[in-house]
Amino acid sequence: MSNTSKIQVICIASGKGGVGKTVIAVNLAVALQRMGKHVMLLDCDLDMANAHIALGTQCDHNLSHFLSGEKTLQEIAVTTRSGVRLVPGASGLKHMAAISQLQAASIVQAFSALEEELDYLIVDISAGISPPTLAFMVACPRRFIVVRDDPLSIADAFATIKVLVQDYGLSEIYLLPNGMCSQQDGELLFNRIDRACANFLNQSIHYIGTIKQDRDILLALKKCQSVLESAPKSLCAKDFKRLALLTEALEPISYASGVLEFFIERLVKENTFTRNSEALQVSRNEFASSAVPNGKYH
User: Fold this and answer.
1) Residue 34 within a domain
2) Where does the pLDDT of residue 214 fall: very low under 50, low under 70, confident under 90, or very high at 90 and above?
3) Residue 136 domain boundaries
4) N or C: the chain end with fewer CB closer than 10 Å?
5) What is the gyration radius of the CA atoms in the chain, in angstroms?
6) pLDDT of the residue at 93
7) DSSP string covering the chain, please?
8) 259 touches 138 (CB < 8 A)
9) What's the number of domains the chain is made of?
10) Please, are residues 54 and 227 in contact by the beta-carbon 8 Å criterion?
11) pLDDT tens-digit readout, 152-194
12) Nearest CA-CA partner of 188 in 237, 214, 227, 149
């Protein structure tokens, strides 16, 4: 996959905190990397970022240094032990908890200048629907909404989907139940929330799989490793591998939505080049047909 318009950008979001969003973002990124993909993980949980801990990676700089102008995006990115490239967020910095939508947009826009060969950008964002969080969600062509089977998580997940659908007109929304007893329980939870979306929002959402409850997830976190490193044969490792396969099977999105998106300048440039190339080929074919009657030389 090239480093232009084929980069698939996926946001890992949630209505409520504490549902396992970062664990899923990290393990999905590692699973895709192990499938031979070039993966970058952007930690946009700007005030309490911890993806670097889950990946066992020391980071000297983070997004706060980018926003201050001290470092470029390329300079703060690090390669983790798993091979995943990480753009670390900040933690424990009060001003990072309240960045403006303009600052969020500057982070999104900076990716167009990133000269790396990537297949996937996984964006781990803060829970909720604050203006900068929504800016990151809208900037991602696909959104995986993580939910647990408890009333608060379900209510907040639905509220998040409602905003994305009614206020932004978005459709590439996938539900990802986490901490479930079985795949079947995850599917049942999806069906409940999907019915609510169809009834009250007049729009269905997509199902992308379920992550089952497994103590190996906590054990991996204590080791500062992904589950695929710590317990590659565990049930949850199989779930993350399945999630990566389902993610890879999704139809690539190669069109611009009209809003600010990650890699938007690359996308527009590539689409313009493709259209021009197609038009040139058509012109060549027309010229050849007119210059050589009946397709034969005389």
Assistant:
1) yes
2) very high
3) 8-295
4) C
5) 21
6) 67
7) --SSTT-EEEEEE-SSSSSSHHHHHHHHHHHHHHTT--EEEEEE--SB--HHHHTT---S--HHHHHTTSS-HHHH-EE-TTS-EEE---BS-GGGGG--HHHHHHHHHHGGG-----SEEEEEE-SS--HHHHHHHHHSSEEEEEE-SSHHHHHHHHHHHHHHHHTT----EEEEEEEES-HHHHHHHHHHHHHHHHHHHS---EE---EE--HHHHHHHHTT--HHHH-TTSHHHHHHHHHHHHHHHSPPP-S--SS--TTHHHHHHHHHHHHHHHHHHHHHHHHHHHHSGGG---
8) yes
9) 1
10) no
11) 999 999 999 999 999 999 999 999 999 999 999 999 999 999 9
12) 149
Judge whether residue 278 has pLDDT over 80.
no
Contact (CB, 8 A) for 101 and 222: no
- Condensed to tens digits (0 to 9), the pLDDT of residues 48-90 reads 788 999 999 999 998 889 888 999 999 999 999 999 999 998 7
Query: Does 3 reside within a domain?
Result: no
Return the biggest CA–CA distance within the chain.
Answer: 79
CA distance 23 to 122: 12
Query: Which pLDDT value is given to residue 259?
Result: 66
For residue 237, being part of any structural domain is answered with yes
Asked whether residue 1 is domain-assigned, the answer is: no
In the block, tokens 């992904």 appear at: 226
53: domain CATH number is: 3.40.50.300
Give the pLDDT band (50/70/90) at residue 1. very low
Q: Which residue type sits at 37?
A: K
Beta carbons within 8 Å of 242's beta carbon, 6+ residues apart:
209
